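[step 3/7] inverse_fold.run input=structure_tokens len=244
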């Protein structure tokens, strides 16, 4: 009973974290549009408005879900193009990175061995990637953030790398613990609940993905997410995982 109560608390906390993050990002971009930072005409600000619409739909989609927050099921499983998926995230977060005087890059290959189709719960995958990108922006004072889509042997790889403050070696084992924050982050002006990387890890685990973190203090951090290639020609979740 106690474990079930803790699980529900974590589900609620993770939902609250991601909904508030989505609407906080929307508010930031809206304020820039109001200030005229990206032009005055409709054509000039149209890309931003599209990004705002997608951010808003992300928040509403999380609130409206009727399935477990972080686990894929037959009801939420779908197929999508990771190349387009990451491009949309790049356009949404580029303006947020610019607001913080950072450069956001999206790097791709010319061709991919087995294409870029992924099977999974797109809302949960979105939560995983958004939390990692948000953290990269939050803890990078200057420099660059890179989103990459690569092949590694037969698998599809997503990399998110920053030139930020990095993570001390002795703290790496703690970063996926819910509500944990590095001692130095508690002393900064960066808001946070210590839930973002927990959410990212749980989504990866539920989808059978591998996640690796490489970090050097004061130099930067790189997250590597591996979408395994399946025999039916699709990356990601095996449909049999969701037959529960």
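[step 3/7] decode complete -> sequence:
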């Amino acid at each position: 009973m106690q474990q079930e109560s803790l699980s529900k608390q974590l589900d609620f906390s993770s939902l609250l974290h991601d909904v508030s993050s989505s609407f906080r990002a929307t508010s930031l971009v809206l304020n820039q549009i109001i200030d005229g930072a990206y032009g005055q005409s409709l054509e000039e600000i149209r890309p931003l408005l599209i990004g705002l619409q997608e951010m808003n739909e992300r928040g509403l989609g999380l609130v409206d879900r009727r399935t477990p927050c972080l686990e894929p099921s037959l009801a939420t499983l779908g197929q999508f193009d990771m190349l387009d998926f990451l491009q949309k995230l790049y356009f949404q977060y580029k303006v947020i990175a610019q607001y913080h005087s950072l450069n956001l890059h999206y790097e791709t290959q010319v061709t991919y061995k087995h294409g870029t189709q992924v099977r999974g719960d797109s809302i949960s995958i979105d939560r995983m990637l958004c939390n990692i990108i948000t953290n990269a922006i939050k803890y990078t004072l200057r420099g660059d953030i890179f989103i990459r889509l690569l092949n590694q042997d037969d698998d599809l790889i997503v990399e998110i790398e920053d030139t930020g403050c990095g993570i001390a070696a002795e703290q790496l084992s703690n970063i996926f613990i819910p509500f944990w924050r590095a001692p130095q982050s508690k002393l900064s002006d960066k808001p946070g609940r210590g839930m973002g990387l927990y959410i990212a890890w749980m989504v990866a685990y539920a989808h059978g993905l591998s996640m690796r973190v490489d970090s050097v203090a004061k130099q930067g951090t790189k997250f590597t997410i591996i979408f395994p290639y399946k025999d039916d020609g699709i990356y990601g979740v095996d449909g049999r995982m969701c037959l529960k």
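[step 4/7] annotate
The chain is about 45% helix and 20% strand.
The radius of gyration is 18 Å.
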